[in-house]
Amino acid sequence: MRNTPPPERKRRTGHGRATLRDVAEAAGVTSITVSRFLREPARVAGDTAERIAAAIARTGYVPNKQAGLLASGRSNIVAALLPNLANSIFAETAQGLSDTLQAAGHELLIAATGYSLEREEEQLRALLGWHPAAVVVTGRRHSAAALRMLRAAQAAGTPVLEIWDHHGRPATGRGGGFTQVGFNHEDVGRAMAGHLLRAGHRRIAYVDSGVAEDYRAHERGQAFAATVREAGAEVDVLAAPSGDAFDAGRHMLGALLKAAQPAITAAAFANDHLASGALLEAARRGVAVPGRLAMLGIGDFALARQLQPALSSVQLPRYEIGTVAARSVLQALTDGEPAPSQALPWTLVARGSTGPA
Q: How many angstroms separate the CA atoms of 250 and 241, rounded?
């Protein structure tokens, strides 16, 4: 008598990914136990939890977050819109956000706006469709449509935070102002000008960002120029070309040196990348820094501290902005009201690149 082979198990259809049932079978438990482990692992016995974790690793199972959202009506995702992820300033802020949110069971979803208000509006429209637990945006300037969406989200109970800015506008509840975590860029610009004025410089330049919508750099430049003029000194505001910031800084050195008499003897830059490019070009040309031209940046990047001479710069709370913003999100989710705005400290660090005129 011929042996009849056992019937084949029906194969999964559809997307082909491992399911909750696959994990349960591999671990020898019920699907309910696997679901409990994914939600509250501490409620599952140690040996059972180990079997489930091993089964998840073997099967490559990925929880369906969208289904979880539909079931619970809540999201654990916080959406953050940052200007540029290639810039270590914003990368460190993203890391601070992620570290603090993950520890509390939330995940970070990041989009890069490229400093574009139009792109921010498009990304907000897409991200809000996923009903994030909270929304974090960079700066206080938004398109009219983006502002309407942010206000509507806050009115519906979704915390909204503006980071990298603190302009004295308090969060006023749902539909009002947003929580701000950052610092006042005009104050930084005034401090940069004061540092160079106290060193005796009487014709000073500010090398602005070449990105039209880099409003924070422009605000620093405007306050810088006003402070220099108030002191009775001369000021030149020069826009760096767009593109690679190091190359733009190298290019701007030539423009600074070509200024007619009286010569520009000091320059503040919109960021350390521009300043570092100018400092490297000065070394290549044999231009004395700070003897011929003092240079001051902002950002206090590790590279700038290694140059010769080391670059004077403004030390910013890059990582702390992320951690404080994340804690504000968690507080708002707990309290049901916007968290208070917070101004974070910054420090102007004088090094070898600035000195007396």
A: 11
Q: CA 138 to CA 146: how far, in whole Å?
A: 12
How many helices and strands in the chain, by DSSP H and E? 13, 12
Distances (CA, A) of 73 to 67, 77, 151, 263: 10, 12, 21, 64
CA angle, 234 then 239 then 243, to 5°: 155
Contact status, residue 349 vs residue 312, Cβ threshold 8 Å? yes
| Helices 46-59 and 31-39: angle between axes, nearest 10 degrees | 100
Spatial distance between the Cα atoms of 235 and 44, rounded to a whole number of angstroms = 68
The answer to whether residues 242 and 208 touch, using CB atoms and an 8 Å cutoff, is: no
Per-residue pLDDT reduced to its tens digit, 265-310:
999 999 999 999 999 999 999 999 999 999 999 999 988 889 999 9
Pairing of β 347-349 and β 203-208: unpaired
- Per the structure block, which two tokens stand in for 264? 């520009």
- Token pair in block for residue 195: 């540092």
**Residue linked to tokens 């069971």:** 105
CA distance 191 to 310: 19
Identify which of 340, 338, 329 has the alpha carbon closest to the alpha carbon of residue 75: 329
CA angle 216, 192, 113 (to 5 degrees): 15
Separation between Cα atoms, residue 62 and residue 103, nearest integer Å: 20
DSSP code per residue over 45-105: -HHHHHHHHHHHHHHT----HHHHHHHHS---EEEEEES-SSSHHHHHHHHHHHHHHHHTT
For the entire predicted model, the pTM comes to 0.81
Per-residue tokens: 205: 């330049």
Backbone angles phi, psi at 71, to 5 degrees: -75, -40
The neighbour count for residue 200, using CB atoms within 10 Å, is: 13
